[in-house]
């Protein structure tokens, strides 16, 4: 008889506390009935008990059947809603911190490195937190099963007109193009943000001995603000491309507008006298790279003085090509 | 051949899972305890193991299809199960569905058999 108690214990200890006693009673009654039928009035031997228990099978499997095989955190009923909420949680967490980072950088561009580190640290802690809490919430909901899956069918309604258009290969913007663009703008932003002193001509006298900067260090903070705004405009343009996913006339118009704005910003920035390092040629001479009056000096000074014009010309060509390229792709049938 | 038997066993398991529920509901217009159900169903050709039936009874009770009551008057206390009102309703609906399935399946199987005969 001890064997029966051990069997019942083995089954019920794996079950929720609240059901244990009832299931134990019921099992005991069942085993009694099975034994009775087996011996038909004779005495019950240990062998009989063992055989009946063998018939009932592995207590672990029996417990599993009582539990209903629920071996998951979030079941199929909730999974779709879970994935949806999870995506929203992760994307909004990411956006909030990114936006915070951009705003902080615009307000206080000099310490962009600190902001950036803080941003990365926040992301590393906040994203798993968002993931964890969302999962935890759904796991709890699933465990208690109070919320019926039907109440949660967000975004499961569907009608044929919701079907996305089959992307037109020729007009399609590959999703990685805008992403590469955004990454490029961010890298340029960060580069200007904390390493202006390296943006110039590097002087080597046997070893590295300094940089003659291209930009005017006194007005650098204002310039940096401009640069960040211009890069921000660029990022907006790439985001538009990402959102549209294909070239349309609307997108071309927006691109043209954004390009015009960024051209005006660049024009204002580098055409102002305070943007470039006013002592560039002097410093180069002092560094011993060129001597005043030499042929090299003439070449360098010509390039230096005309650089503004050439940069603007190249920029105009680039921006106009950007629009024309979009227009060609949008017109393609 | 062994493969065929293995697949058959798996499919039969899936097939039985639903039918056992109907079988259980069909016997519970009168209160029964688990082991008497095993015997009753067995006599009618539906073999179900106690290890399957007992958890199933609890699940159906939790879903509200069955009511249960302990009878402690006899020598051995037993838990009796009985169809609830919802259970009765569900059972009626299930019978209809089941009969339709049998009919449709018969159609499908017989049509196939007929075609085969014709081709031979």
UniProtKB/TrEMBL annotation, chain A:
Keywords: Membrane, Transmembrane, Transmembrane helix. It comes from the Bacteria. The chain crosses the membrane at residues 84-107, 119-141, 179-204, 224-244, 251-270, 309-328. Pfam families: HAAS (PF22564). This is Uncharacterized protein. It comes from Ornithinibacillus caprae.
UniProtKB/TrEMBL annotation, chain B:
It comes from the Bacteria. Pfam families: PadR (PF03551). Residues 25-91 form the Transcription regulator PadR N-terminal domain. InterPro entries: Metal_resp_DNA-bind_regulator, Tscrpt_reg_PadR_N, WH-like_DNA-bd_sf, WH_DNA-bd_sf. PANTHER family: PADR-FAMILY TRANSCRIPTIONAL REGULATOR, TRANSCRIPTIONAL REGULATOR RV3488. This is PadR family transcriptional regulator. It comes from Ornithinibacillus caprae.
């Amino acid at each position: 008889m001890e064997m029966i108690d051990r069997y019942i214990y083995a089954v019920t200890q794996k079950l929720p506390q609240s059901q244990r006693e009832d299931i134990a009673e019921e099992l005991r009654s069942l085993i009694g009935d099975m034994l009775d039928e087996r011996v038909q009035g004779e005495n019950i031997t240990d062998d009989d008990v063992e055989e009946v228990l063998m018939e009932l099978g592995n207590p672990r499997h029996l417990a599993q059947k009582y539990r209903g095989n629920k071996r998951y955190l979030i079941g199929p009923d909730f999974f779709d809603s879970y994935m949806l909420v999870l995506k929203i949680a992760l994307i909004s967490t990411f956006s909030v911190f990114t936006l915070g980072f951009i705003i902080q950088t615009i307000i206080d561009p000099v310490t962009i490195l600190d902001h950036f580190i803080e941003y990365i640290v926040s992301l590393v802690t906040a994203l798993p937190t968002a993931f964890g809490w969302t999962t935890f919430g759904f796991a709890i909901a699933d465990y208690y099963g109070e919320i019926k899956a039907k109440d949660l069918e967000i975004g499961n309604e569907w009608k044929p007109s919701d079907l996305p258009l089959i992307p037109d290969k020729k007009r399609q913007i590959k999703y990685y193009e805008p992403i590469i663009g955004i990454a490029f703008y961010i890298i340029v932003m960060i580069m200007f943000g904390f390493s202006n002193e390296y943006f110039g001509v590097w002087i080597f006298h046997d070893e590295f001995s300094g940089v003659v900067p291209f930009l005017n260090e006194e007005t650098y903070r204002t310039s940096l603000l401009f640069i960040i705004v211009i890069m921000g405009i660029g990022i907006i343009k790439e985001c538009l491309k990402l959102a549209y996913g294909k070239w349309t006339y609307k997108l071309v118009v927006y691109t043209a507008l954004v390009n015009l704005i960024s051209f005006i910003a660049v024009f204002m920035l580098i055409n102002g006298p305070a943007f470039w390092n006013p002592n560039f040629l002097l410093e180069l001479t002092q560094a011993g790279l060129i001597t005043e009056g030499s042929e090299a000096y003439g070449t360098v000074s010509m390039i230096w003085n005309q650089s503004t014009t050439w940069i603007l010309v190249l920029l105009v060509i680039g921006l106009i090509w950007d629009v024309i390229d979009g227009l060609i792709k949008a017109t393609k049938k | 051949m062994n493969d065929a038997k293995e697949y058959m066993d798996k499919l039969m398991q899936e097939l039985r899972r639903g039918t056992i529920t109907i079988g259980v509901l069909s016997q519970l217009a009168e209160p029964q305890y688990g082991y008497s159900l095993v015997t009753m169903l067995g006599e009618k050709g539906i073999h179900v193991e106690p290890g399957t039936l007992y958890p199933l009874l609890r699940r159906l009770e939790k879903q509200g299809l069955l009511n249960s009551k302990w009878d402690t008057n006899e020598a051995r206390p037993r838990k009796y199960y009985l169809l609830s009102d919802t259970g009765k309703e569900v059972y009626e609906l299930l019978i209809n569905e089941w009969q339709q399935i049998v009919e449709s399946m018969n159609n499908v199987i017989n049509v196939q058999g007929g075609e085969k005969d014709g081709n031979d």
